[in-house]
Amino acid sequence: MIERIEVHVTELPVRVKRIFSSGSYDTGPRDRILGKPVLVRIHADGVTGCAQIRPISPGHFVADTTQGTVAAITEIYGPALIGRSIFDIEGINEMFDLRLAGNPAARAVLDIALYDAMGKALGTPAHRLMGGACQPRIPLEWSVSLADDPAVMVEESQRAVSEFGIGVLCLKAADRRGWRQDVANFERVRRAVGDDIVIGVDPNTGWSVADALRAVDALRELDLGYIEQPVARRDLHGLAAIRQAARGIPLMADESLFTLQDAHELAHAHAVDAFCIKLYKVGGLTAARRIGAVAQAANIQLNCGGLAVQSQLEAAAAAHFYASTPRSRMFGAGEFLFGLNTTAPDPLVPETDFVVRDGHVDVPTGPGLGVAIDEEALRRHTLLQATVQ
């Protein structure tokens, strides 16, 4: 039975700032709570399940903040978990629905910690609790930030390809100067990295339908690999129109997909070819698997998104989900490589072999998530700590 839950907000010594159409991605000053990851440790029957999620607001389409996530766990979800079995996954997720709507980041970090605890209790990696290792070696994608100077995007793309062997790039799009600038950015990157690299675009809802149609026509000649969330999240008719006009260039939903009901509506509208699963956005591994079932029924592929900046735990959770899904049902590559020591090391995991090799990463094989945090590092980097018991 669950005895107590620890909640830590931890600093990120290396600040990460990125630009996209709908706002900014900024981890903030190292000593500021807002923008920092939330780590949870669930203690039950001699095992400790651990997970970490960074709520990415403000400045993005997800409403969760660090402070709101901590409050949801310590005030509502956490107390309701005390005394329950770590294996009561369905019952616990029902409790989430009944006790407090929304709050996917808080749900996600608790749900993932439960998978870590179950895996440790059984002595097996988390992916075996979700169907096994269909893909033990996972291809990775690099998300390239917008920049006023296209040379900055070219430099980031070249680093991804040359230093880490990345074979899939996703260029942020919907530049403030208009869709033609997006095409110019794409052309510069394509010339720099060559024809063997898959390059997609992600306007993060920043295009109109008209912009999207013209941009896709222009980008088709440059071998556009895919389109991610070109228009507003509720514009399913617009997505469907763009998908039809794209003539085989896959279209993926991100901002349009939060819930199981969103997945059903997208499938019913024939709006997209792929769902972008981000664990912090959908509410954890349990919710991701449910959405995956809708996708399978509708012949829609899955993509595993989320940068997991400087978090081995967050990256590992995504890797276990990716590994447990058959290759035929996956689209693109895993986005979580910013948690694999590419931009900066995880301050809580100073030693690791969970890193990028030739554009891929191997799913961890240790019990649970297979990632062990350093206790002294956790103590040193904790900005805020609370306990529920």
From TrEMBL:
Keywords: Metal-binding. The keyword Metal-binding applies. PROSITE patterns: MR_MLE_2. Gene3D superfamilies: Enolase-like C-terminal domain (3.20.20.120), Enolase-like, N-terminal domain (3.30.390.10). InterPro entries: DgoD-like (IPR034593), Enolase-like_C_sf (IPR036849), Enolase-like_N (IPR029017), Enolase_C-like (IPR029065), Mandel_Rmase/mucon_lact_enz_CS (IPR018110), Mandelate_racemase_C (IPR013342), Mandelate_racemase_N_dom (IPR013341). Residues 150-249 form the Mandelate racemase/muconate lactonizing enzyme C-terminal domain. SUPFAM superfamilies: Enolase C-terminal domain-like, Enolase N-terminal domain-like. The keyword Calcium does not apply. Belongs to the mandelate racemase/muconate lactonizing enzyme family. This is Enolase C-terminal domain-like protein. It comes from Pigmentiphaga daeguensis. The lineage of its organism: Bacteria, Pseudomonadati, Pseudomonadota, Betaproteobacteria, Burkholderiales.
